[in-house]
Amino acid sequence: MGSPGSASIVGAVELGGTKVIAAIGTGPGRGILARERFPTGDDPARTLGSVAEWLQSQSASIGALRAIGVASFGPLDLDPSSPTHGFITTTPKRGWAGTNVLAPFRRAFPGLPIAFDTDVNGAAIGEGRWGAGQGIDDFVYLTVGTGIGGGAIVRGRPVHGLVHPEMGHIPMPRAVGDAFAGSCAIHGRCWEGLCAGPAIAARAGRPAEDMAPDDPAWEFVTESMGHALATLTLVLSPKRIIIGGSVRKAGKLGEAAFFERCRLQLKRALEGYVDSPSLTDEGLRSFVVPPGLGDDAGLCGAIAMAQRTSTGIG
Ligand code: ZN
Questions:
Q1: Among 91, 113, 157, 172, whose CB has the most other CB atoms within 10 angstroms?
Q2: Whole-angstrom Cα distance, residue 175 to residue 221?
Q3: pTM of the entire structure?
Q4: Ligand 1 mean position to 49 CA, how many Å?
Q5: Distance, CA 171 to ligand 1 centroid (Å)?
Q6: What is the Å distance from ligand 1's center to 183 Cα?
Q7: Which of the residue ranges 1-5, 25-29, 114-118 would you say has the lowest mean pLDDT?
């Protein structure tokens, strides 16, 4: 783990659908030297302007930044050769479609390197550097919260491909006896439409935090989680799957029970087809895990992204 003085001080911005977290630091824990929270709102110029100003003022008192990492909700244009690189493209979030996310930071810090990626790729990079993905070249980081997204690290690098993965919207089978229509505005019963926080609340008629541990909705949710985890296992052959986001805390069911059920359902969905010690009852305990950095995975990821950009390490 880095400490002030031994690693470069960078700026980090985790841009989420409801809040933006900005920080200056060198790494997780005590490596975060200052942090601030801003509502995302529906006026990107104002929000991003405030974040850039805060970074400037903190940098003036703490130290010069070597780079800035921005990990953002999307969809994003990540193609460096595109004229709209650094933009949020088609989001339904009011005010934010077509936003040039990087411009305010470029104006505030002329010439400073800026790393830009999805929030989940950022969190994956953070977990790889300091958390549950350390020492593993091939793994997946998922966030299951207000929405669902995933970042795949393959051979140590985040996968971008055509655009970037949109794991939350993979189509899902219908469980026997399940009449729930799903809550994704585009697809209805995609993974996000079945397992994100709002989907669980819509199905159960109350927020996930208030659901009893034996609420039948948990059975449908964890069965769907198992199907989606099986799909990722079959397609990407990851060595670990890290699940972050608020849903994993699972209210009265509890995080440990939620993970146990997801592992069991993953095993059921695979039906023994993939042969690996990681997919036995014992192995699954370290195959499907919570984030090592807890709720700071995304923010620390933005720090790691910035440090990669400024020094090539990580
Ligand atoms: Zn969808």
A1: 172
A2: 10
A3: 0.94
A4: 31
A5: 8
A6: 8
A7: 1-5
